[in-house]
Amino acid sequence: MQSQLAKSLYLGLAALSFGAVATAAATTTSADAAAKAKIVSKSALGKDSKNVEVTGTNAIYTKPGTVRGAKLVASKKTVKKLANSNHSKDYFRAYHMAVTNRGTVYYKIVSMNGKYRGYIYGGKVKGTIGAGIKEAQTVKEATMPSRTAGFHIKNVKKNTLWTAPQHTTYKAHKVNMYGTTKEDTFTVSKAETKTKEGSLYYYVTSDKNSDVAGWIFAGEGYKDATSVDFGGLTINEEEPAATNDNSVKIVYREAGKQVGDATWITTAKDTKAGKKVTATDKNTATLSLEKFASNKIPSGYKLQTKDAITTATSNATYGNNVYVDVVSAATSKISLAVENVTSTVGGNNVTVANPLKSSDKLTVDDFAVTLKAGAISALSGDKSQVISTSELDKIAAGFGTDMEGTKTYYAGAQAYHYKFSVNVDGFKSDNRQAKYGDTLTAKFNAVLVSGAAEKHTVDSSWIAQ
After folding, report:
1. How many degrees, rounded to 5, is the angle at CA 427 between CA 421 and CA 433?
2. Final residue of a domain: which of 311, 329, 347?
3. What's the total number of domains in the chain?
């Protein structure tokens, strides 16, 4: 009797224990499932795909990191190294977006060299890049060379043209150069530097076949006739040695003191010492004496008068010096800010996520702001002088009109961007007492318009950081 009772008690306790374990396991499984997020929407970015760089704050996963089954692609430690990289191959392209039931946004990204591909946390605002990534300007506009024609590919089997400077955009690839020879000449039409490395590229087009065109590494770039080889390009020309029969020395001076010099050497065959230099006489870079002298003004100086070079070179003779008077120069830069924001589109007030506000600082990441070359030149002058009203007029008139924003803003799923226009009168009033070298201020009116923004590359050399 006692034996049977003990056995019954044992079996009852075992059953209770098994039930408790089963209940606990079920509870654990249920809690684990509740802890994992789910994807509620996915969409390709399409034309809104962006070049980005990682910030180093988040890892990359095969799926959004909080979703069940997500596996590590690159740890936070690895991503931090990529964020601090000085190589363009470690930029990424963001091309897909996923949103979870928690409202978190993830972007699918791929590195420019294709090594890393996966999802990274991008914040909580749909369509707005943030958190683990930020938009990247992979290239910057560079100064065009003084000579743009007559270049050759140094080695057509080795020096390749690219559809974009390598690794500055995803899937940049080599251009088909079939039939190109070392004798073919190319013309330069654009110049850019890779932001991370600072390396210079020229966009060149074959004079024989316009289909052969692309970007090529240009080393230190073409500077003057002494630049024979630079990167993958060459001019195959050697400047003759300077003699009294073929050269003129330009001396730059401030208040009678020499601050620089340069020697122009002609390729003309019938020159001799004492003979007057003509406008048709050129050097190996096809530059006249006047043009060469203009290009060689020492850094930090400007002409004392606008016709100083014309005056100095008009009666130049071979074997003699010409003297160009200059003054110490200072260059102002311009800070950009929002003055007014209009958010009415089609008669309706639209509220976008993270909208612009009055007094917000602007950069080239916000809009394709442009300033004409003449206006940029007007930013430089005698550092002791107040910028004149006429020069302020010239600078103000140099701004573009209806400048397109380069950031996309969202109200729900609808995409918008801003258009910008400068307050011309405000610019002239705000800077009326500024001297050359001071930072000027330009204020812009921002008007919200429908549609996603497009990226543009502009010259930002004149913008205050």
Report:
1. 170
2. 329
3. 4
Question: End of a domain among 213, 237, 261?
Answer: 237
337 and 443 in a single domain? The answer is: yes
Specify the pLDDT at position 38: 95
Residue 419 lies in a domain: yes
Look at residues 216, 168, 211 and name the one whose alpha carbon lies nearest to residue 191.
Answer: 216
Residue 45 included in any domain: yes
- pTM beyond 0.90, yes or no: no
> What is the residue range of 394's domain?
332-450
Query: Is the separation of the CB atoms in 79 and 69 below 8 Å?
Result: no
Asked if 205 contacts 187 with a C-beta cutoff of 8 angstroms, the reply is yes
Residues contacting residue 85 through CB under 8 Å, at least 6 positions apart: 196
| Tens-digit pLDDT profile for residues 400-426 | 888 999 999 999 889 999 999 999 999
Determine the Cα–Cα distance for residues 6 and 39; give it in Å rounded to an integer: 54
Determine the 3-state secondary structure of 268 from DSSP. coil
- The verdict on residue 242 lying in a domain is no
Rounded to whole angstroms, how far apart are CA atoms 14 and 129? Answer: 57
Instruction: List the single range of 25-29, 159-163, 282-286 with lowest mean pLDDT.
Output: 25-29
Residue 255 has pLDDT above 50, yes or no: yes
CATH value at residue 132: 2.30.30.170
* Residue 370 belongs to a domain: yes
Between 34 and 325, the higher pLDDT residue: 325
Using only C-alpha atoms, the chain has a radius of gyration, in whole angstroms, of: 32
pLDDT band for position 20 (cuts 50, 70, 90): very low
Can you name the residues that pair with 254 across neighbouring β-strands?
257
- Among 305, 301, 364, 298, residue whose Cα is nearest residue 331: 301
What pLDDT score was predicted for residue 254? 93
Residue type (1 letter), 173: H
10 Å CB burial of residue 323 (0-12, 13-18, 19+) is middle
Is the pLDDT score of 227 beyond 70? no
Tell whether the model's pLDDT for residue 47 goes beyond 60: yes
State how far the Cα of 15 lies from the Cα of 18, in Å rounded to an integer: 5
